[in-house]
Amino acid sequence: MLITTTPILEGHPIKEYKGAVTVETIIAANVLRDIAASFSDFFGGRSGSYEKVIREAKETSMRELEAKAAAMGANAIVGFAIDYETMGKGASLLMAAARGTAVVI
């Protein structure tokens, strides 16, 4: 399935709009990740453990978005966007909210 952040796919005219698709994915960040991140905060640098959680949330959201679009009869998603938010006590949960428009090209 083609997914793009743009409203069109150049060279692929949109034949039919199936509708909006949205998914929300929530992933818990565990204590070990918090400890590793605190070292990164103290010494500087990147937090590989949190980057992994963000990638996992993005990939899960994209798979679910594709599945929803396919169930609607779409073969592409245009206008894809994803937002991240922390939530829960101590911001221990990461939410990824993905959206786009399911289309047939």
Mean pLDDT: 84
Count of discrete domains: 1
Q: What's the level 1 CATH class?
A: Alpha Beta
How far apart are the first and last residues' alpha carbons, in Å? 10 Å
Largest sheet: 4 strands, mixed
Low-confidence stretches: none
Percentage beta strand = 35-45%
Topology, number of strands: 4
Features:
4-stranded mixed sheet, 105 residues, Translation Initiation Factor IF3, alpha+beta
How would you characterize the overall build of this protein?
This protein is α+β, with helices and mostly antiparallel strands. The chain has two helices and four strands, in the order ββααββ. Strands 1-3-4-2 form a four-stranded mixed beta sheet, with helices on one face. The chain is elongated and about 45 Å long. The protein starts with a strand and ends with a strand.
Which SSEs are present, and which pair or pack?
Blueprint: E1 2-3, E2 16-28, H1 31-43, H2 48-71, E3 76-87, E4 93-104
Parallel strand pairs: 1-3
Antiparallel strand pairs: 2-4, 3-4
